[in-house]
Specification:
Chain lengths: 270, 255
C-alpha cells in the first residue's frame, strides 16, 4: 500500500456511485418507488389542468402552468430525496462508520451523493415527462434551454437541503430521519409553486424571495404564460444557491465534527 | 528504537458528565498483537473509536503511523482498517460487490486479483456472489475480516472479531490473524472478551476499567503477577477489584 493517498480521487467517488448502483439494481421495489409517486402526481395534476383549462378567462391561463409546476416541484423534491435517501441507505445498512474510516473524504462522499441524486432523478423524471406528453400532450422538454436553467437551480437547492438534512441525521441519528422526508414540504407554500409570489402577504414575500426555487417558479410562469425567459430571475436564483450551497457545506462539516465529538458515528441508531 | 505505530497520550473522552476514557497513555510497537481488555463500559470501544478517528477526544491525543487521528486521519486511513460488531456491510450487495467497492475506496490497484486472493485465504468462494445479508454469522465475520484486509493494512483494529462465532470458526479466524501478522509484520489491536483468544494471540494486554488503564503486560506475566492460572482469572480479579499483584510476584515476573 502506498505511503500517500490522493487528496481527491474520482475512483473513490466512482466506488460510492457503484455501491448505490448495485443497490438499485438489486431491488425492484426501490426502482418502482422512484417512478411511482411522480407518476401519480403528474396524472392527478394533469387531469386537474385539463378540467381547469376548460374554464373561461384567467383561470384557464393559470391552468397551463400546473403540469410544468408539478414537474419542476418534483425535480426539487426528488433531487433532495435522491441525495438524502442515498445517505440514509448508509445509516440503515450500518455502513457509515466503514466509510468514515476509509480514505473517502467528506467532499467525495457529498459528490457521490450528488451523482446519485441526478441518477435517481433521471430514473423517475424521464419516464414521467414522457407520460405527460402521451396522456396530456404536455411536452416539458419544449421549454428548451430555459429548462436547463430551471433544472440547475432547483438541483442546487435540493443538494443544499439534502446536505443539511444528511448532516443532521449524522449528528442526531435516525431519530432525525423524518426531517429528510418532510423538510422540503415547507418550501411548497413558501416558494409559490402553484401561484405567483404576489399572492403571499406582503410580510412573507421577502422570505419567499430568499428561497432560490421561488425565482425558478416565477420564471416558469413567465415562460409558459408570457413566453418570456427571465434571465434576471435565474441569476438571482443562482446567486442565492451559491450562498445556500456554501452554507450547507459549512453545516455538513460542522455536524460531522459534532458527530465525532458526540460519538454518534461509531454507534449508528436512533 | 522505532517509533510506536499507535500512541495515546493522556487520552480522554467525556460525554457530558460521563467519563468514558480518563487520561490513558500507551504506545504500541509495530509487528505486534495487543489485546485491549475490560468489562462492558470499560472504555475499549471509545478508545478504538478515537484511534480510528471516528470519535474526537475531549483531551489528549492519539497518533497512528505519526498522524494525529483527530486532525489528519486521511494521511493514514488507507494504511489502516477496522472490523467491529457495531458496523455492518450493505446487506443487499453481494460479498464480491462489497469487496469491490471497498477495494476501490482503499485504492487497491488490482481489485479483482485481491478479491480472488481473499476468497482463497478466507474460504469465501462458496458464497462470494451471495448477498451479504443472507450469510450465516460465521460467514459474515469472514466477509467483515476480508473487508478489513482488502487493503492489506499495516494497522488492523478489531473490536470483538470472534464474538458470536462457534469455536471452530473462531479458531479458524484466530489462525488467519496470526498468519496475517507474521506475513505482513502488521500491528493488530484487538478488543475482546474472549480470554483464551487474547492469551493465544496477544503479545501484550492492556486492561481497562472505568476508562482507566489498570494493568499492561504480556499475558503470561500478568498470570504470574496475579498468581493465577489463566488470563480469565486475572480479568475477573481486575473487573471485581478482588486483588492486586503483590510486590513479590511483580519482582518474580520481572526477573
Amino acid at each position: 500500500m502506498s505511503e500517500h493517498s490522493p487528496a481527491f480521487s474520482l475512483r473513490r467517488i466512482a466506488a460510492m456511485v457503484l455501491r448505490h448502483w448495485y443497490l438499485l439494481r438489486s431491488s425492484w421495489p426501490r426502482l418502482l418507488e422512484i417512478v411511482y409517486w411522480p407518476a401519480v402526481q403528474m396524472t392527478m395534476w394533469g387531469f386537474l389542468q385539463l378540467h381547469v383549462a376548460k374554464q373561461p378567462g384567467a383561470l384557464a391561463l393559470a391552468a397551463g402552468t400546473f403540469l410544468a409546476a408539478v414537474l419542476l416541484w418534483d425535480v426539487l423534491f426528488r433531487g433532495q430525496l435522491g441525495f438524502s435517501i442515498s445517505f440514509l441507505e448508509e445509516m440503515w445498512a450500518r455502513n457509515l462508520a466503514n466509510l468514515m474510516i476509509s480514505p473517502l473524504r467528506p467532499v467525495e462522499f457529498v459528490i457521490a451523493l450528488i451523482v446519485m441524486s441526478v441518477i435517481r432523478l433521471a430514473i423517475g423524471f424521464v419516464p414521467v415527462s414522457l407520460l405527460a406528453i402521451a396522456f396530456f400532450g404536455f411536452n416539458f422538454w419544449s421549454l428548451g434551454l430555459a429548462l436547463a436553467a430551471f433544472f440547475a437551480n432547483l438541483l442546487f437547492t435540493s443538494w443544499a437541503v439534502g446536505m443539511f438534512c444528511s448532516g443532521l441525521v449524522m449528528r442526531q441519528g435516525l431519530g432525525a430521519e423524518g426531517l429528510t422526508w418532510s423538510l422540503m414540504f415547507l418550501f411548497l407554500p413558501l416558494t409559490c409553486v402553484y401561484y405567483p409570489v404576489a399572492t403571499l402577504p406582503q410580510w412573507l414575500q421577502p422570505i419567499a424571495w430568499a428561497l432560490p426555487p421561488t425565482a425558478v417558479f416565477e420564471g416558469m410562469r413567465a415562460l409558459v404564460i408570457e413566453h418570456a425567459f427571465r434571465a434576471d430571475l435565474m441569476a438571482w436564483a443562482l446567486a442565492l444557491n451559491a450562498l445556500w450551497l456554501a452554507g450547507a457545506a459549512v453545516a455538513f462539516q460542522a455536524l460531522l465534527a459534532a458527530a465525532r465529538r458526540g460519538g454518534s458515528l461509531l454507534q449508528v441508531g436512533e | 528504537m522505532t517509533a510506536p505505530v499507535i500512541k495515546a497520550e493522556r487520552l480522554s473522552k467525556h460525554y457530558g458528565e460521563a467519563i468514558a476514557v480518563d487520561g490513558i497513555s500507551f504506545a504500541i510497537a509495530s509487528d505486534s498483537i495487543t489485546g485491549l481488555l475490560g468489562g462492558n463500559g470499560a472504555g475499549k470501544t471509545t478508545t478504538i473509536g478515537m484511534i480510528m478517528g471516528l470519535v474526537a477526544p475531549t483531551a489528549g491525543r492519539v497518533t497512528v503511523l505519526g498522524a494525529d487521528m483527530a486532525h489528519e486521519p486521511h494521511r493514514v486511513l488507507h494504511r489502516m482498517n477496522f472490523e467491529s460488531p457495531h458496523v455492518d456491510l450493505p446487506h443487499r450487495l453481494t460479498v464480491r460487490q462489497n469487496l469491490t467497492v471497498f477495494g476501490m475506496l482503499y485504492g487497491v490497484a488490482d481489485v479483482e486479483g485481491r478479491i480472488a486472493r481473499l476468497a482463497g485465504d478466507l474460504d469465501l468462494g462458496e458464497f462470494i456472489d451471495r448477498p451479504a445479508g443472507k450469510l450465516s454469522a460465521g460467514q459474515k465475520t469472514r466477509v467483515a475480516l476480508a473487508k478489513a484486509l482488502v487493503n492489506e493494512p499495516e494497522v488492523l483494529v478489531l473490536d470483538e472479531p470472534t464474538a458470536s462465532l462457534d469455536p471452530d470458526t473462531a479458531d479458524w479466524i484466530r489462525g488467519h490473524l496470526e498468519r496475517y501478522r507474521k506475513g505482513k509484520q502488521a500491528t493488530i489491536l484487538l478488543a475482546s472478551h474472549n480470554m483464551g483468544e487474547v492469551e493465544r494471540l496477544c503479545d501484550r494486554v492492556i486492561m481497562m476499567k472505568r476508562g482507566c488503564i489498570v494493568d499492561d503486560d504480556a499475558p503470561a506475566r500478568l498470570i504470574v503477577r496475579y498468581g493465577r492460572h489463566t488470563l480469565e482469572e486475572v480479568f475477573l480479579d481486575v473487573a471485581r477489584g478482588r486483588r492486586k499483584p503483590s510486590l513479590a510476584t511483580q519482582e518474580e515476573a520481572a526477573s
